[in-house]
Amino acid sequence: MTLLSSSTVNINPDIPIPLSGIPDTCAQHISDSLEINSILLHNNDHAIVILSSDTLFVPEYMAATMSEMIAKKYNNCCIFFSSTHTHNAPGIDHSKQRLGATTPVYIRRYEHALYDLVDKLLNNHGEEVNLSYGSILANHCVNRRKKVFTSLAKKSISTYPNLNGAKDETIHALVCTNLKGQLRSLLWSYGCHALAVPFRNTISADYPGAVRRHLRQQYDAPDLPVVFIPGFAGNVLPRKIAKDLPWRRPLSLLNRLAHGPPFGQFSPEEYSRWADGLSRHVQSAATAAGLQRIDPKFAFAACDIPLHELTNEAPAGGRLRIQAARLSANHILLSLSAEVVTEYLSLAAEAFPGDIVIPASCLAGTFGYLPTQKLLDQGGYEADRFFTAFSLEGGSYKPLPEQRIFKAFQLLSKELEE
Strands 339-340 and 369-370: what pairing? Predict the structure, then answer.
């Protein structure tokens, strides 16, 4: 028997307030609400808690505090605490001030809301549910790394639409319904940066919030917990391609002629159409016609890789956290505390043969980007330029990081089988 407890809490700030993800920008109004959404699944003395926060990142100490709370009730438990990675929310991670200033008053309010949410989960006896899995392919994102002209005589990797670059359009959905068939909560994963909302100086959960509102309206369930976890989206953006011709910028015009149009910004109408289309895809992935009923079989494994094994000039005590949870005989939730590039999906599939791997990045304690050697050779923001922005001055990757990650994947796979 599988029992579900689920809940949601509003974490809107008072405005104006600095945003994290859009440096030197303050939100002047609220476009849509920020939330923490949560589910707790309990089966045969195993409990899994999944928290999804409408913030850019979640600091590691918050996950550790929540783990201690949960461990007092459940001996064999695992907590997955991820951010949705919206760039239109206040920061709560003091270690990343260059991405946006944090506000102590808001962090305290956030901590109280988080504590109350988890306390509510733990004091709920739960409802018996059935679990189902569904998936569908969308067409809403694009790889953001392309070698283009950065001067009239030089090319380098820049943030530019790469229609032939790696991406994953799979929408994964884990659906929880009660014994009457009523939807009680939904978890979904998609590998695309939450950078679609067309307004900079506003509070918004970005497209995870738009999908959440759509599902609640469609199911007439205004408080439905909808847990979004970003997939391996480190080098993927919404498909927002510029339409105007940059006649007054020779370099931009040269790139447009040689490499196609650059990224642009959605208009409000374009964003609404894009988000509505994605919302319908998520709903389709979660509908009865394409769902596969799964028999819960919970098992957990985790490992930490010290950052000094992956990078040079790593901060003392820094680590990459990798967690895996077996949900059924052939469904795995795999999460990393990094902005993981899409190329790691093939390594996950190889390490967990025969399993459907639901990828999750931006786990609490995310330190930065996780590229492959190919990306390191190419250069670009995800390979090396992010270090300064993430307050990791002087940092650089050691060769072949994917080899170390793959070994960790294999170790977790073996532990789950045992």
Answer: parallel
Check: CB of residue 263 under 8 Å from CB of residue 239.
Answer: no
For the segment 288-336, what is each residue's pLDDT rounded down to a tens digit? Answer: 777 999 999 999 999 999 999 999 999 999 999 999 999 999 999 999 9
- Which distant-in-sequence residues (6+ apart) come within 8 Å of 138 by Cβ? 169, 170, 171, 190, 277, 278, 281
Identity (one letter) of the amino acid at 8?
Answer: T
Residue type, 179: L
Element (H, E) at 20: none
pLDDT of 252 reads 87
* Bridge partners of residue 4, in order along the sequence: 41, 127
**What are residue 83's DSSP bridge partners?**
53
51 vs 7: CA distance, rounded Å: 10
Q: What pairs with residue 173 in β-bridges?
A: 134, 188
Closest-CA residue to 342 (of 364, 376, 370, 323): 370
What lies within 8 Å, CB to CB, of 91 at 6+ separation is 18, 19, 20, 21, 55, 56, 57, 97, 99, 100, 101, 102, 103
> DSSP letters along 269-311, please?
HHHHHHHHHHHHHHHHHTSGGG-EEE----EEEEEEEEGGGTE
For CA atoms 143, 147, 148, 149, give the dihedral sign: positive
The H or E element spanning position 18 is: strand 17-18
Which tens digit of pLDDT belongs to each residue from 218-228?
999 999 999 99
The alpha carbons of the chain give a radius of gyration, in whole angstroms, of: 21
Whole-number Å distance between alpha carbons of 168 and 344:
11
What is the C-alpha separation between 334 and 202, in angstroms, rounded? 32
Question: What does 201-246 look like in DSSP terms, one character per residue?
Answer: SEE--HHHHHHHHHHHHHTT-TT--EEEEE-S-TTEEE--B--S--
**Kind of pairing, strands 17-18 and 26-27?**
antiparallel
Rounded to an integer, the average pLDDT of 192-205 is 96
Q: What is the DSSP letter of 127?
A: E
Could you give the CA distance from residue 252 to residue 380 in angstroms, rounded to a whole number?
Answer: 18
Residue 144's φ and ψ, nearest 5 degrees, are -110, 10
Q: Which amino acid belongs to residue 196?
A: A
Assess whether the previous peptide bond of 16 is cis (omega < 30° from 0): yes
